[in-house]
Design brief:
CATH superfamily of the largest domain: P-loop containing nucleotide triphosphate hydrolases
CATH topology of the largest domain: Rossmann fold
Helix content: 25-40%
Number of helices: 11
Number of strands: 13
CATH class of the largest domain: Alpha Beta
Structural class: alpha/beta
CATH architecture of the largest domain: 3-Layer(aba) Sandwich
Number of domains: 3
Distance between the termini: 82 Å
Amino acid sequence: MKNGTVPQPSTALVAYGWDSLLDSAFAPHAERGLLPGRVVRVDRGLCDVVVPGGADGTVTVRADTEDVFTRDPMRVACTGDWAAVDTTPVTGPAVRALLPRRTTFVRSTSSKRSEGQVLAANVDFAVIAVSIAAELDLGRLERFVSLAWTSGAQPMVVLTKADLVPDTTYLLADARSAAPGVDVRVVSAATGDGVAELAQALAGVTSVLLGQSGAGKSTLTNALLGREAQEVQAIRDSDGKGRHTTTTRDLLPLPGGGVVIDTPGLRGVGLWDADAGLTQAFSDIEDLAGRCRFQDCSHTAEPGCAVLAALEDGSLAYRRLDSYRKLLRENAWIASRTDARLRAEMRREWKQRSAAGREMYERKRGGGHRKVY
């Protein structure tokens, strides 16, 4: 870079999302002679990073990420990260640092230590792919949308395989009811319906495709790219589910500008610090709760409860309220496992509720006049 042999990052990496804010953030690393780059793939301690260089302005190098791997899984390099790369070691390029992330899509792992796992970083749109060739799972959709809002990215729902469904009207309405304020689209990669419009919406930004195996993410990625970049496999006819075609998270440039990250199918999507995301994903219930007579209304039997009134008049579905309560409990439980103080508070609350429940049970059995010593 000092000799001017490497293109300026602002021009070389602009197709991958580089901007003036990143230019400023990278300045201290530039002084050390490091190159900026974007992580396009991570696999077993090594990652592919696009850096300035080559006849076309950029080149992809395989870099060691050991220096930025720590015991904190939230700080491990992932696809979408912006990195400071050292290309001078005789052993090969190495990632020396990661730039601060603007957005981070995180889920909880199945680990007993309740760790978070970063699925993608610096994403503008979290595109949730849902196959409507199988039964539409609104609860799972609400979970994905909650995590997307939590990440800081803008969620988008794409109902795929529309060519296999004669009428998508009701499915589209159901999906929109489960994702208020979210752009919900219907596409078919097989026929091309809706693909051009989706490509236009994602042009010039970083997007990540998320969803279960068999949702058609890799097929949709190929349709957006206009080429067969990702391998695809047929789904099982018995249950409509697919096998993991994509095994790594790959960042790919789009023809119209911008990049898309294709991800492996997600069997489990655990919440992780999703308070803000749940508030946004269930904004309709939050708005109703704000109209309740009592500020601490539990929406179970209190007079003047706007949530219960909405259930009675049919403007709020029981299923949606149940989903909201379930996700709130799960998020609180995950938080309690990572916060000793909160865990102790929850245990005290559970003990109090258990004691109250036992007292109520005794009263129903006629033991309400027991003398207490």
